[in-house]
């Protein structure tokens, strides 16, 4: 793995303790509340192959995925992505970056259309953000194990997600998708950083893109970004972007 930007003192080595330390420095969170998203796409912009992102991934991407999870306070994912990618509790993290327990997964599901018997919802560390439109019976069932937060009437907005999570002390927020959730965070101005891996594949145009903005948010786009770092490995490019005009050395303050 090579670091292209900013210019490194040396190339990153194999996936040993030193490269994990180096990656931890590259992707370190700034102080305060910071919302980071991590996505992968093919060269022609596809977010998945045959419905799953795993078909796009490689060794370097999987390592950075672990590093980003290890650095986060909480991992946020939409219900559709959680189902498609068979999410469970976070595991197999980088112990030298995170000696304590793994970060909780916070699943966003307006209708609570999740399997209460799934491994993810059987974990008492899982957080579920839903709405008042979710069936009361389903809320009661999921609440037996997971921490269910009713956070809206019809939808769970990005500002509400950030407010609920920071109110519980989770300030280093990692969003793992899907495209609709990423569109919500971006259109409301709450996405501070986007980490995106470009996979050396041409998918053919059958899959969605990494971001699907709501139609009402058209005026919020395009959103200018600044390229903060680039890693390269075996044809994969692992890029990190921040909002234009933002420095990763200090996060803007937000009320908890």
What is shown here, in short?
Helices cover 21% and strands 23% of the residues. With 256 residues, it is of the alpha/beta class.
Give the domain tally. 1
Q: What's the CATH class label?
A: Alpha Beta
Distance between the termini: 38 Å
- Count of extended strands: 10
Q: Any idea of the CATH topology? A: Dihydrofolate Reductase, subunit A
Residue-averaged pLDDT, rounded?
A: 92
Order of helices and strands: EHEHEHEEHEHEHEEE
> How are the strands of the biggest sheet laid out side by side?
1-9-10-8-2-7-3-4-5-6
Largest sheet: 10 strands, mixed
| Radius of gyration, whole Å | 18 Å
In percent terms, what proportion of residues is strand?
Answer: 15-25%
Describe the structure.
- With 256 residues, the protein is of the alpha/beta class.
- The chain has helices at 17-26, 59-71, 79-84, 136-142, 158-167, 179-187, and strands at residues 2-5, 34-42, 74-78, 105-108, 127-130, 147-150, 172-175, 193-199, 225-233, 236-243.
- The protein has a 10-stranded mixed sheet, with helices on both faces.
- Strand 5, helix 4 (136-142) and strand 6 form a beta-alpha-beta unit.
- The longest helix is centred in the first third of the chain and has 13 residues, at 59-71.
- The protein starts with a strand and ends in a 13-residue tail after the last strand.
- Residues 250-256 have low confidence and may be disordered.
Helix and strand layout, with pairings?
Layout: E1 2-5, H1 17-26, E2 34-42, H2 59-71, E3 74-78, H3 79-84, E4 105-108, E5 127-130, H4 136-142, E6 147-150, H5 158-167, E7 172-175, H6 179-187, E8 193-199, E9 225-233, E10 236-243
Parallel strand pairs: 2-7, 2-8, 3-4, 3-7, 4-5, 5-6
Antiparallel strand pairs: 1-9, 8-10, 9-10
């Amino acid at each position: 793995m090579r670091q292209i930007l900013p210019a490194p003192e040396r190339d990153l080595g194999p996936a040993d303790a030193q490269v994990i330390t180096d990656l931890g420095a590259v992707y370190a969170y700034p102080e305060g509340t910071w919302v980071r998203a991590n996505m992968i796409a093919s060269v022609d912009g596809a977010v998945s192959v045959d419905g799953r992102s795993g078909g796009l991934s490689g060794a370097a991407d999987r390592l950075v995925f672990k590093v980003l999870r290890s650095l986060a306070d909480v991992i946020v994912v939409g219900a559709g992505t959680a189902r498609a990618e068979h999410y469970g509790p976070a595991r197999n993290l980088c112990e030298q970056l995170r000696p304590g327990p793994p970060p909780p997964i916070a699943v966003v599901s307006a209708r609570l259309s999740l399997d209460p018997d799934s491994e993810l919802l059987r974990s008492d560390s899982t957080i579920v953000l839903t709405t008042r439109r979710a069936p009361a019976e389903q809320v009661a069932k999921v609440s037996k194990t997971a921490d269910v937060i009713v956070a809206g009437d019809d939808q769970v907005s990005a500002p509400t997600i950030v407010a609920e999570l920071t109110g519980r002390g989770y300030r280093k927020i990692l969003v793992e998708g899907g495209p609709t959730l990423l569109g919500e965070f971006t259109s409301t101005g709450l996405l501070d950083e986007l980490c995106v891996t470009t996979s050396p594949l041409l998918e053919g145009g059958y899959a969605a893109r990494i971001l699907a903005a709501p139609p009402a948010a058209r005026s919020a786009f395009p959103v200018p970004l600044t390229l903060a770092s680039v890693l390269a490995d075996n044809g994969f490019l692992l890029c990190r972007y921040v909002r234009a005009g933002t420095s990763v050395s200090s996060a803007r303050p937000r009320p908890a």
